[in-house]
Design goal:
Layout lengths: L7 H4 L26 H14 L2 H8 L8
Helix pairs in contact: 2-3
């Protein structure tokens, strides 16, 4: 029997990747609010006024810029 004459649908097996599965439940992780001391805020605002950008001020102080936004 030639391969073309076989019923191709009967030869295909479902692989785990092609089967429909329930969506994964991913819990949202909420970051903890970090408070900064008055001196840290003043240092940051001073650097921001002097340098003009949040990224530059954060870089100078050695902090992650997203912490201050």
């Amino acid at each position: 029997m030639e391969p073309s004459s076989r019923n191709s649908s009967s030869l295909k097996k479902k692989s785990p990747s092609t089967e429909k599965s329930a969506p994964l439940a991913i819990a949202a992780v909420k970051r903890q609010q970090q408070s900064h001391s008055r001196a840290q805020r003043e240092d940051f605002l001073s650097a921001l006024a002097r340098l003009g950008t949040v990224a530059d001020a954060a870089k100078e102080l050695g902090i992650n810029r997203s912490t201050r936004q």
